[in-house]
């Protein structure tokens, strides 16, 4: 994909989200645009603190700009270049949906939190070199995430009295196969729990910010095709987990809605 194509894809993603939403574009009250960062937590705050707000979230990332070729000092860059992909996605967030406008929410964001993993400062960082911008990825990233993921789950689900990690649905940012493997292993998850995340990684790569929105959309399609009772693969509660520099873990507690 050419870098110049990415802004166009962002516009197309936004228009598609508005079309699926079903209300006129003039009803959008806020726009959140982001690259390489979490946006849903910010959109949630805006929607909850502005009566009647409808926040259009547009996330666009071009990982092609980070392609710098092999480096003897940073062979780890080849890993990112192998799994990264360009992407654009959009979603609309509101605090209270309008039944008279025939709005049909897909998921409810109940709570959000950000956790910084200890002793992981050098695990993931960007470098501006004479050849361009490049990310350096430590081989310890999956282990860092795996050893801290249960704590994030406990903080999100303990208030609900949930301790069975297989009783909820998952939207997990696929930083790579090893990251998903560590999450699955440390939480003792059944293979099907991360199936949608693995499918998106296989089809599109790690698109940075837009990836979790792709997973939410793929889950929506899956549950409709399979006739499940709720948007969360037939379950009531779920978690969205995303990972980024810091290392940080973004956790959003999700509640599914009934399929109409």
UniProtKB/TrEMBL annotation:
<dbReference type="InterPro" id="IPR012328">
    <property type="entry name" value="Chalcone/stilbene_synt_C"/>
</dbReference>
<keyword id="KW-0012">Acyltransferase</keyword>
<feature type="domain" description="Chalcone/stilbene synthase N-terminal">
    <location>
        <begin position="39"/>
        <end position="95"/>
    </location>
</feature>
<comment type="similarity">
    <text>Belongs to the thiolase-like superfamily. Chalcone/stilbene synthases family.</text>
</comment>
<dbReference type="GO" id="GO:0016747">
    <property type="term" value="F:acyltransferase activity, transferring groups other than amino-acyl groups"/>
</dbReference>
<feature type="domain" description="Chalcone/stilbene synthase C-terminal">
    <location>
        <begin position="109"/>
        <end position="257"/>
    </location>
</feature>
<protein>
    <recommendedName>
        <fullName>Chalcone synthase</fullName>
    </recommendedName>
</protein>
<dbReference type="Pfam" id="PF02797">
    <property type="entry name" value="Chal_sti_synt_C"/>
</dbReference>
<dbReference type="GO" id="GO:0030639">
    <property type="term" value="P:polyketide biosynthetic process"/>
</dbReference>
<dbReference type="InterPro" id="IPR011141">
    <property type="entry name" value="Polyketide_synthase_type-III"/>
</dbReference>
<dbReference type="InterPro" id="IPR016039">
    <property type="entry name" value="Thiolase-like"/>
</dbReference>
<dbReference type="Pfam" id="PF00195">
    <property type="entry name" value="Chal_sti_synt_N"/>
</dbReference>
<dbReference type="InterPro" id="IPR001099">
    <property type="entry name" value="Chalcone/stilbene_synt_N"/>
</dbReference>
<feature type="domain" description="Chalcone/stilbene synthase N-terminal">
    <location>
        <begin position="2"/>
        <end position="38"/>
    </location>
</feature>
<keyword id="KW-0808">Transferase</keyword>
């Amino acid at each position: 994909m050419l870098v110049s194509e990415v802004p166009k894809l962002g516009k197309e993603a936004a228009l598609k989200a508005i079309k699926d939403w079903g209300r006129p574009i003039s009803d959008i009250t806020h726009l959140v645009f982001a690259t390489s960062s979490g946006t849903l937590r910010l959109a949630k705050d805006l929607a909850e603190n502005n009566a009647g707000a409808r926040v259009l979230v547009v996330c666009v990332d071009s990982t092609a700009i980070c392609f710098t070729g092999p480096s003897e000092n940073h062979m780890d860059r080849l890993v990112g270049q192998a799994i990264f992909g360009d992407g654009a996605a959009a979603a609309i967030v509101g605090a209270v949906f309008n039944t008279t406008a025939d709005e049909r929410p897909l998921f409810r964001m109940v709570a959000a939190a950000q956790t910084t993993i200890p002793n992981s400062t050098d695990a993931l960082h960007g470098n501006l070199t004479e050849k361009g911008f490049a990310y350096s990825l430590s081989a310890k990233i999956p282990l860092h995430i795996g050893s801290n993921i249960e704590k994030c789950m406990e903080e999100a689900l303990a208030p609900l009295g949930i301790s069975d990690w297989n009783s909820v649905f998952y939207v997990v940012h696929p930083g790579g196969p090893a990251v998903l493997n560590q999450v699955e292993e440390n939480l003792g998850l059944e293979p099907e729990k991360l199936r949608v995340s693995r499918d998106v990684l296989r089809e599109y790569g790690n698109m940075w910010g837009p990836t979790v929105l792709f997973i939410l959309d793929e889950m929506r399609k899956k549950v409709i095709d399979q006739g499940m009772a709720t948007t969360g693969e037939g379950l009531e509660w779920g978690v969205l987990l995303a990972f980024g520099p810091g290392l940080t873990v973004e956790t959003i507690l999700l509640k599914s809605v009934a399929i109409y």
